[in-house]
């Protein structure tokens, strides 16, 4: 009798479970088959799609507007600092993108019935906790603000900070992107930037040291050097002042080194040095041939 009673209860429990699953399946089928459910779901998808497209359009229009404002400001004859204009334009574009994307996420969550008040309150508490823990992030943001506010460097400048040297591609509130002349992109947290050398603010000096044999007539060599650099100065827009042949820099038994300097536009000294070296080499070779020819006669 006892065994039969247990078997009866087991069968009754199994039937109850099967019945519950059948009811759940019927309810799920009725829910899926309900046109109102699909209508609401499609409506939510349409709204979310419009929100996403609207956000992208707003970001595009904002970037275009900022670009237009920056171009107009650069064309202003009273504007003297185009570097800062370009940097601020990129920063405002990043801030606009962050704000629009944040609002877009809140609107999408609202379409799925998620209440924003508790979410924002919780985000505030979490943000406060993260603020205490992420001190390096706060330091990056504060340093980035002062880099832009004090105009330490701008987009397009050639700088060196620590072991990194290159052209600034982007300045954000958290990181700075620097591209080296060999193509590597260095992403540097602003908080680690403690010392910066900016090569793009003031004019640079190109130094050209020319080595001639000790037995060469020094007056004639210096005259050839002067004529060559002055000819190059007339055709080179990067030189801002006339070159100066300073004279003998070092003297030894086998050679004499004559130094020439020229003030040029920011960060163009290496290019000008290479050009002057090539032109001086050609001029000295021509002078040697003329001297050798005259001696042969």
From TrEMBL:
Residues 137-200 form the Mechanosensitive ion channel MscS domain. Signal peptide: none annotated. InterPro entries: LSM_dom_sf, MS_channel_1st, MS_channel_C, MscS_beta-dom_sf, MscS_channel_2nd, MscS_channel_C_sf, MscS_channel_TM-2, YbiO_bact. Residues 94-135 form the Mechanosensitive ion channel transmembrane helices 2/3 domain. Keywords: Cell membrane, Membrane, Transmembrane, Transmembrane helix. It comes from the Bacteria. The chain crosses the membrane at residues 36-59, 91-113, 119-138. Gene3D superfamilies: 1.10.287.1260, 2.30.30.60, 3.30.70.100. It is a multi-pass membrane protein. Residues 207-290 form the Mechanosensitive ion channel MscS C-terminal domain. It is found in: Cell membrane. It holds the Pfam family MS_channel_3rd. Its main location: membrane. Belongs to the MscS (TC 1.A.23) family. This is Mechanosensitive ion channel family protein. It comes from Paenibacillus baimaensis.
């Amino acid at each position: 009798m006892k065994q039969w009673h247990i078997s009866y209860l087991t069968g009754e429990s199994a039937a109850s479970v099967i019945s519950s699953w059948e009811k759940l399946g019927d309810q799920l089928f009725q829910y899926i088959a309900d046109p109102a459910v699909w209508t609401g779901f499609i409506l939510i998808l349409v709204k979310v799609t419009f929100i996403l497209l609207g956000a992208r359009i707003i970001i595009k229009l904002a970037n275009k507007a900022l670009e237009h404002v920056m171009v107009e400001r650069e064309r202003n004859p009273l504007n003297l600092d185009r570097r800062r204009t370009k940097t601020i334009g990129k920063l405002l574009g990043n801030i606009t993108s962050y704000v629009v994307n944040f609002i877009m996420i809140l609107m999408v969550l609202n379409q799925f019935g998620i209440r924003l008040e508790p979410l924002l309150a919780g985000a505030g508490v979490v943000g406060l906790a993260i603020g205490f823990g992420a001190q390096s992030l706060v330091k990056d943001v504060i340093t980035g603000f002062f880099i832009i506010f004090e105009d330490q460097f701008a987009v397009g400048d050639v700088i060196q900070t620590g072991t990194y040297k290159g052209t600034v591609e982007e300045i954000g509130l958290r990181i700075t992107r620097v591209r080296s002349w060999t193509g590597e992109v260095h992403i540097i947290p602003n908080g680690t930037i403690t010392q910066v050398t900016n090569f793009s603010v003031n004019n640079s000096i190109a130094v050209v040291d020319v080595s001639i044999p000790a037995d060469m007539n020094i007056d004639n060599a210096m005259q050839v050097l002067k004529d060559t650099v002055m000819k190059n100065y007339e055709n080179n827009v990067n030189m801002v002042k006339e070159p100066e042949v300073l004279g003998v820099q070092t003297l030894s038994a086998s050679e004499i080194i004559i130094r020439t300097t020229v003030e040029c536009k920011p960060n163009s000294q290496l290019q000008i040095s290479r050009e002057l070296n090539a032109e001086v080499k050609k001029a000295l070779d021509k002078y040697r041939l003329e001297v050798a020819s005259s001696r042969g006669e």
